[in-house]
Design a protein that fits this description.
By secondary structure, the protein is α/β, with parallel strands linked by helices. The protein folds into three domains: about 80 residues, Helix Hairpins (Orthogonal Bundle), CATH 1.10.287; about 120 residues, 3-Layer(aba) Sandwich (Rossmann fold), CATH 3.40.50.720; about 70 residues, Regulator of K+ conductance, C-terminal domain (Alpha-Beta Plaits, 2-Layer Sandwich). The protein is built from 14 helices and twelve strands. The longest helix is centred in the first third of the chain and has 30 residues. The radius of gyration is 32 Å and the shape is elongated.
């Protein structure tokens, strides 16, 4: 399916100027055929007629010529008013600057690759955007309500004001080149539609969807979502944990959200088999292994030193950016 091409902010200016040129061409043809003027005489007569400057005619007009001139003047009044209105709106009311900014933004989106698409910019969408920005991930936001973008101070946020359930909008956001999509729309039915559409446009993309109702979880996974998150359920569990184990909960929350060069939790895809005690990651790299995910998508926490890690497993490691990079290099023999 082909995406809709973004309209240039100069399109309406081009249209207005084209109308002037077409009117000029009609005038030249009309005076040439009706009054048998030369080409230069026809251009001169058309220009003074459209400009309504009141200069004398090249030569006296026939009745047909007078009728043609009257029609030209009446038509030109409407065209002139339209041209002046469009130009003043673009350059005096700031419309040109706004549309040109959108035009440049879409050109940037067209060059993105391996990015994340966030559908919906409510509370969940904004939190997702903040987390991705902290991790230096590139992303683009799709949201129908333009007001949500005008209320924020970040003028560099790449966004599309449109309906995320539409195929051409997802294509405009680069769905075919994106690595992940977060559907954070307020209604589960809309999220199901986005997931279905995204999966059909990019079978390999990772899709994370929001759900409000427990009955929607199975539907979203059947539609193609890799993960389904229920914010209300997570929020309730989080509040309960703050009662039972407040320090642990706050510490885990800090670990998962406060990513920086000094501290981060990252996953590393393993290319070859090895034993954890042979790796000895803490001594060789300074990074700490928290667990791993095996080929069956099962998680294993606090693995023992004699655990064998195989190709395709994903190690969950904690440390500074430099320590994580060193661990990756060690595992891949770089």
């Amino acid at each position: 399916m082909r995406r809709k091409k973004q309209t240039s902010p100069l399109a309406e200016i081009y249209t207005a100027l084209s109308m002037v040129l077409i009117t000029l061409a009609i005038g030249v043809c009309g005076y040439t055929l009706i009054e048998h003027y030369t080409f230069v005489e026809a251009i001169y007569m058309t220009v003074i007629t459209l400009a309504t400057v009141g200069f004398q005619e090249v030569r006296p007009l026939s009745d047909a010529g007078r009728v043609f001139t009257t029609v030209m003047i009446m038509v030109n009044l409407g065209i002139f008013a339209y041209v002046i209105t469009r130009i003043s709106r673009y350059f005096m009311d700031g419309e040109f600057a706004r549309y040109y900014k959108i035009y440049r933004m879409h050109n940037k989106i067209d060059k993105m690759d391996g990015h994340t698409i966030i559908c919906g910019y409510g509370r969940n969408g904004q939190e997702s955007a903040m987390a991705l920005r902290r991790n230096n991930e590139t992303f683009v936001v799709i949201e129908q309500q333009e007001k949500l973008f005008t209320d924020i101070a970040d003028s560099n946020l790449l966004h599309i004001v449109a309906d995320a359930t539409k195929d051409y909008v997802l294509l405009e956001a680069g769905i075919e080149r994106a690595k992940a999509l977060i559907s954070a729309l307020p209604e589960d039915t809309l999220n199901v539609f986005v997931v279905l559409t995204a999966r059909s446009l990019n079978p390999d993309i990772k899709i994370i969807s929001r759900a409000s109702d427990i009955t929607s979880v199975k539907k979203l996974k059947s539609a193609g979502a890799n993960n389904v998150i229920m914010p209300d359920k997570i929020g309730g569990a989080h509040m309960a944990m703050l009662v039972t184990n407040p320090d642990i909960e706050e510490f885990v929350d800090l670990m998962s959200t406060k990513t920086s060069d000094a501290f981060q939790i990252n996953e590393i895809v393993v290319q070859k088999s090895f034993r954890l005690d042979d790796l000895d990651s803490w001594r060789t790299t300074g990074a700490t292994l928290l667990g791993y995910k095996d080929a069956s998508q099962n998680y294993h926490l606090n693995p023992t030193p004699d655990t064998v890690i195989g190709p395709g497993h994903r190690l969950i490691a904690m440390g500074s950016k430099a320590q994580i990079m060193k661990l990756k290099a060690t595992l891949n023999n770089e």
